[in-house]
Structures are given as structure tokens and as C-alpha cells.
Design goal:
With about 425 residues, the protein is an all-alpha fold. It has one domain: Sodium:dicarboxylate symporter (Proton glutamate symport protein), CATH 1.10.3860.10. The chain contains 21 helices and no strands.
């Protein structure tokens, strides 16, 4: 019993339950709860930039083959595009069949169009050519200060390649970077012990701010979204796992602590460092994890893609706008681009939804106000699906590159050692 109580997964689940109770009974505590949750996320965020940098640099420097780096990156981007497009199509199909927007009373949702001004302004500033050009930093120190993942990724690839070309001369720097990387991961392990507080704050803020009553008018949409994401994980991703000969269920068991933390904090970035560590323990090479996971946080957002496609159809149904097959194909095309601009943090999906509706000019952008109250309750599903999707992608790319340690995988899924491996990740 003592071992169960001291287990991080149990502590986070208890914290989430307490957060729900506090949010329901003490809504005035919501601002303080948000501060608690945001502080935990900030503590994790401060480690993301150095972890990504050291992981990628060390992976490439030790790989020593730039062609291989390009091949891994190309495979990852192709995989991301195929899977996110499939997620968009599945979202559209379920929304058309289930029709969650039919019969929704707009007045019952208490929608406040004035609240969407911030998202409209952010969406109007989004230029997708600039988004891709933005990957190249003009000041890398500014990129580290802002935690811009893609810019850090770009610089780290160049740094790692340059270091690999130094041969034995750069070996001392590689050793230093390895020691610094170990220090950063040790800090991460200490911070992860505070995960229950972050989960408690995140859930207390959500319930205290929006209340469970906001779920009722849009309950059908929530059911449809959660059902679709479950379908995507346990059918689509499970099929991919089967084809690449590893168990989705065993993988989910292995990363269950990350899943419950994301459930509580509503942010997949809160577990990015620990997820990278877990994937290495699961059998993926450091170089593949370093390239695939950070890139996936901007380009492989399966859950966000599903949510965006379903939201567009939902809003068209609420306002009785009959979208033709041609228009829905256009939606797929637009979302293939706009979904890549959503980062792995809460709220970004709304900005992308606003930019998508602006590009389509079919559904009024003011209509997204309907989703404001319930969006937070669906962000957990988005973040968890994104997390699992990126984890599966890393294993797939590692296996395709023969950069997967089968013995490490067997140890990871072994009932006798799995608990020790998971526990040791945070000790």
C-alpha cells in the first residue's frame, strides 16, 4: 500500500480528483489554482530548450552521418503529414455521421462573441509562409529565451553536424555536453515530483472557471470528440503499432504517468522532457527521439487536427450551413496547412481554428464563441492524443531506421521491471 501511495501516477490522479472537488465548491480559488498550475508548467518549460538542444546535438554528433539525419527528418515529416491528414478526414467523417451540432440552442451556450477578439487578432497575424521561414532564427539567444522549439531544433541540427565534423577534436565538448545533459535531466526528475500540484491547479482552475454546467449544452460535441480520439488511438495508431510489431497497450502503460499529468495540466509540453527520456528507455535511439519529438510538437498534432475538423463541421451544423463535398475537401486542404501552426500548449488550437474559418469564409468566425466555455474540457483529449501520437511516431521512425533497441523494449514491457523503470525515471 505504501508503494502505491508513493507512486507518482496515484498521486496525480488523487490531485486531479481533489482539484475537481475544489473547483466545484470553491470557484473563487480558480485564479490561485491557475497560478499553481502555470508555475509547474513554467518549471518544465525552462528545461525544454536545453534538453532539446543537448539531445539533438549529442545524437547527431555521435551519429556522424548527415544523410541519415536528413533521411530521419524526411521520414518524420512525411509520416506526420499522412497521419494528421488521416486524423482530419476521420474527424470530418465522424462529425458528419454523428452530427453533434444539430439541435444545439445557441442561447443555451451563453456564447460571448466579444471574448474572441484576441483569437481573431492572433489569427489575422498568422502567415503560413512566414511560419516556415520563422524556423530559421535571427538570434539564437532570443530563441532560447522564448523557448522557440523549431528554431532551437534548427540550430541544434547545424551545431550537431558541425561538431561531428570536428572528429576527435570535438570529443571533449561531447563529454561536457553529456554531463550537462545529465544535470538537466536530474533537475527534471526533481521537478516532476511536483506534478501532483500542477495537476491539482490545472483541474481546479478549469472547473472553478468554467463549471460543469457549461458541458451540458455542448455535451454531444464533447462525446463525439472524445469518441473520435479514442477511435483514432485504439484503431489507427493501434494498427500502426501492429504493423511495426510493438504493443500500443504496453506503450500506454509505460507512459501512463505522462498521460495523467497531461490530463491534469491540459498541456502536452508539461511532459515533453520526461517523454523523451521514456522513449529512450522504451528502445528508441537518442538521435531519433531528439529529432522526431520536438518536430512532432509542431507538425504532428493528431488530436488538434481531429478537434479542428470536427469543430468546423459542428459550427456549420449549429448555424444550418450545408457544406458540400467540395467545400469539405477544401477544409481538409486548409487544415493540412493551418493545423501545423498549432503548438502543444493550451489555447493555440483556438487561434488556428479562427485562422481556418477566416481562410474558408464559409462559417462566421464569431461562431467560435460558442466553443469557448467547453474548449478547455476538450483540450485534455487533444493534448493526450498529441502526446500518444508523437510517441508512436518516434517508435515507428526508430524501427524504420533500425535505431530501435529490442532488448530495451523487452525490459520496458516486462511486468517485473516496468515499475522499476518507470519509477527510476523520476528518482
Amino acid at each position: 500500500m505504501k508503494r502505491v501511495v508513493s507512486h507518482l501516477t496515484f498521486q496525480v490522479l488523487v490531485a486531479i480528483f481533489i482539484g475537481v472537488l475544489v473547483g466545484m465548491n470553491f470557484p473563487a480559488f480558480a485564479p490561485t489554482a491557475k497560478l499553481i498550475s502555470q508555475t509547474f508548467i513554467n518549471m518544465i518549460s525552462m528545461l525544454i530548450a536545453p534538453i532539446i538542444f543537448f539531445t539533438i546535438v549529442l545524437g547527431i554528433a555521435q551519429m556522424g552521418d548527415m544523410k541519415k539525419v536528413g533521411r530521419v527528418g524526411g521520414k518524420a515529416l512525411l509520416y506526420f503529414e499522412l497521419i494528421t491528414t488521416l486524423a482530419i478526414i476521420i474527424g470530418l467523417l465522424v462529425a458528419n455521421i454523428f452530427q453533434p451540432g444539430k439541435g444545439v440552442d445557441v442561447a443555451a451556450t451563453h456564447a460571448d462573441p466579444s471574448k474572441i477578439q484576441t483569437y481573431q487578432e492572433s489569427a489575422s497575424e498568422m502567415n503560413w509562409l512566414e511560419f516556415f521561414a520563422h524556423i530559421v532564427p535571427k538570434n539564437i539567444f532570443e530563441s532560447f529565451a522564448k523557448g522557440d522549439i523549431l528554431q532551437i531544433l534548427f540550430f541544434a541540427v547545424l551545431f550537431g553536424f558541425a561538431l561531428s565534423r570536428m572528429g576527435s577534436t570535438g570529443s571533449s565538448l561531447i563529454v561536457t555536453f553529456e554531463k550537462l545533459s545529465q544535470v538537466i535531466f536530474n533537475i527534471m526528475k526533481m521537478i516532476m515530483k511536483l506534478a501532483p500540484f500542477g495537476a491539482f491547479g490545472g483541474m481546479a482552475f478549469t472547473i472553478g472557471t468554467y463549471g460543469l454546467s457549461t458541458l451540458y449544452p455542448l455535451g454531444k460535441l464533447m462525446i463525439a470528440v472524445y469518441m473520435t480520439m479514442a477511435l483514432f488511438i485504439f484503431v489507427v495508431l493501434n494498427l500502426i503499432c501492429y504493423l511495426y510489431k510493438f504493443s500500443l497497450w504496453q506503450f500506454l502503460k509505460f507512459i501512463r504517468q505522462e498521460i495523467v499529468i497531461v490530463l491534469g495540466t491540459s498541456s502536452s509540453e508539461s511532459v515533453l522532457p520526461s517523454m523523451m527520456l521514456k522513449l529512450e528507455k522504451f528502445g528508441c535511439s537518442k538521435s531519433v527521439v531528439g529529432l522526431v519529438v520536438p518536430t512532432g510538437y509542431s507538425f504532428n498534432l493528431d488530436g488538434t487536427s481531429i478537434y479542428l475538423s470536427m469543430s468546423v463541421i459542428f459550427l456549420s451544423q449549429v448555424f444550418n450551413i450545408d457544406l458540400s463535398i467540395g467545400q469539405q475537401i477544401t477544409i481538409i486542404g486548409v487544415l493540412m496547412v493551418t493545423s501545423k501552426g498549432a503548438a502543444g500548449v493550451t489555447g493555440s488550437g483556438f487561434i488556428v481554428l479562427a485562422s481556418t474559418l477566416t481562410a474558408l469564409k464559409v462559417v462566421p468566425i464569431e461562431s467560435i464563441a460558442i466553443l469557448l466555455g467547453v474548449d478547455r474540457f476538450m483540450s485534455e483529449a487533444r493534448a493526450i492524443t498529441n502526446l500518444i501520437g508523437n510517441g508512436v511516431a518516434s517508435v515507428v521512425i526508430a524501427k524504420s531506421e533500425k535505431e530501435f533497441d529490442q532488448e530495451a523494449y523487452k525490459r520496458a514491457i516486462s511486468p517485473k521491471t516496468a515499475e522499476d523503470v518507470i519509477s527510476s525515471s523520476y528518482e
